[in-house]
Specification:
The complex is a heterodimer. By secondary structure, chain A is an alpha/beta fold. In chain A, 39% of the residues lie in helices and 16% in strands. Chain A has one domain: Rossmann fold (3-Layer(aba) Sandwich). A 7-stranded mixed beta sheet of chain A has the order 2-1-3-4-6-5-7, with helices on both faces. In chain A, β5 (177-184), α8 (188-206) and β6 form a beta-alpha-beta unit. In chain A, α1 (31-44) crosses α8 (188-206) and α4 packs across α5 (109-117). The longest helix of chain A is centred in the last third of the chain and has 19 residues, at 188-206. Chain B is built from 12 helices and 15 strands. The longest helix of chain B has 21 residues, at 216-236. Chain B is α/β, with parallel strands linked by helices. Classes of the chains: A alpha/beta, B alpha/beta. The A-B interface holds A 48-52, 54-55, 61, 64, 67-75, 78, 81-86, 88-90, 93, 110-111, 114 and B 22-23, 25, 49, 51, 53-55, 57-59, 61-69, 71, 73, 87-88, 91, 95, 198-203, 206-212. β2 (70-73) of chain A pairs parallel with β9 of chain B, so a sheet runs across the interface.
Amino acid sequence: MARIPEDMELVYRRPESMTEAHTHYCPGCTHGTIHRLVAEVLDELDVRERTIGIAPVGCSVFIYDYLNVDMAEAAHGRAPAMATGVKRIFPEHVVFTYQGDGDLAAIGTAEIIHAANRGELFTTVFVNNAIYGMTGGQMAPTSLPDQVTSSSPTGRDVKTAGHPIRMAELIGGLPGAAYVTRQAVLDVRSIRRTKRAIKLAFQAQLAGLGFSMVEVISTCNTNWRMTPQEALDWAKEHMVAYYPLGDTKVADGVKALQGKE
Amino acid sequence: MTKELLEGNRALAEAAVRAGVEAFFGYPITPQTEVLEHLSKRLPEEGRVFLQAESEVASINMVYGAASTGARVMTSSSSPGISLMQEGLSYIAGSEVPVVVVNVMRGGPGLGNVQPAQSDYFQAVKMAGHGDFHMIVLAPASVQEAIDLIGLSFELAERYRTIVMVVTDGAIGQMMEPAELPPMREIPQERPRPSWALTGAREREPNLVTSLYLGAEKLEATNRRLQARLQKIAANEVRWEEEAVEDAELLLVAFGSIGRICQTAVRLGRKRGLKVGLLRPVTLWPFPSARVAELAERVRGILTVEMNAGQMVEDVRLAVEGRCPVRFHGRMGGAIPLPDEILTQLEALQDEMEGAE
């Protein structure tokens, strides 16, 4: 790293929990922002050296190239089962999964629900951008009603394709979950709130309070066929309307943690 | 140590405890459930991990995660459950993580039934999941051998960073017979972890457990490494048992519980003047092909007996390469070939050989 002149103060740097690799994400993608928030939190909690992450299948499959921690690559949707195995062997370690909406809310629904229900002591960062990004923009379980995708060319018809799943509400209803919240990364304010939520989720894990999950409303400007700014605006207008931001579960122990902050 | 009257599934489970298994993740399915039940009691007693998963899909991925930390872990199931695990087995093979999986085989296809069968031979030996890989497959023929092979399975899995599958069947799983358990293996409080394992990137670069290799060159190189390891296993780890092959004119080839029934057939056959011997593969993969080929030079005919429609017989024929006739006798759906019907088949083979001369 370049040396900082004595008369200047270091105000912004790459977190130690991030590598120097350039990400493969499309310009305008919000994954990079969310990765960085996770890395900043791991640094601030000083747990990088005892953290094990589980990567999903989807756009963020290469998160292990960007985070400077031990990681495993799961089969599609199975990250919560793998995280369960890791955490049960190393209860003192910090374990997290990073999953997209196809991974968590479609193919991996059983794994996430049962991991949460068992109160597994790991943290899930769930990125909801209402589409399958990696495979080129197909309808996701989270795609909005009438949303046009490459596999719903006339728009999602809820009569045949069902309604978008609100995972934070579903998981928040399980007794094993200690902290579940839905946040967004659509402007500076929401990004800062998301970081606080991710930190609280990891703190809940460290305190042994139960399962924790942060759903993050995100964008996919490439597959939404929009500019990055249009995508952010569309998410604020349409996604946040269907997926209200805020906590769906805050166990008493987590409230106590919040109080300390 | 003394022999006790032990039930196959529980004996196998206790052998795993004594071999130092740190964690078990599984799902109930007949005729395997006693393995899970036994471990649900014993592992917590020993301060180790037992978890009943929501499905076999979850079980195998919990095993995958736990094994990624370098821990000694296992799961067990029966045929339909193993089918559900195939996705995970492929990822585990691609990630080079050591795990032990037990399949107490039952009749298929589909839900089939809960009677003993050997119809998962192809699945275990040829294609346990998508992509090019093999598992080491061990097939015990008795409760004692199941106990012994469980201990071996962990050693082999860890030595080669591979999957070892122990295939028994409902007969061995449910049967009680005298057997001796090994002493409890001493386990250090802080178990040493291999250098590749996920333990937290402390004073080293991060470790990665993955089966993803984008680019043909990278994935081909990975496959070559996996294949080289499989060749090493094939060279070093072939195991089989023989009986009365020295002067045999007819050779029985059979594995697992049928291998044991064929032992009786050999003894009865000898009494009737049939010069019959037995080769019982203990490793189904790697298959004792060289030994089968050697014996095929000396015997007049081979009879392969299985509890399926004819699966291992394909490997027998590949090994024999036309050196002598190979015949097959099989029963399916939980029906078990008995010594008498095996003898009838042997006599028919004998007549066929004499007719051919």
